[in-house]
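Example for reference:
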Amino acid sequence: MDDLLSKDRLNPFADDEPLPGLDKFKPKTADQLSVRPQASQIEQAAAEQGFPERGPKSKPTPRRRREPPKREGYRTGRSHQFNMKVRAEDIARFDAQCERQGWVKGQTLEYALDALEALLEDPNSEFWRMRGIIPKSQK
């Protein structure tokens, strides 16, 4: 075990130059650093190499202010969202009723609830008998 930690180990880099060619490296002087190519030289070199110009071709034309769209319909006071899972055919029926009557969906729901409440006031209605339902007010 002591052999591995011996101070007489071979240095694999002992005969190599630390970085070959390092003696040829000389940092640039301040004068060399301050020399920058002209903009025309840069453009010419870019054109020769096929480098695309990335600047704007021309100044963009200012956009005309567009008037806000005129609001169709009317304010209803309905500002809450109501989501639920339903069958596709019920959505189709609901949308068809909205279209047929010319009502918005919130308005159609409001009228449907009004109609349901009116039906619930009469638990002996034909509507309930056809469906075999006994409204809770009857139980």
Q: What stands out?
A: Helices lie at 30-34, 39-49, 88-101, 105-121, 126-131. The chain has a mean pLDDT of 81.
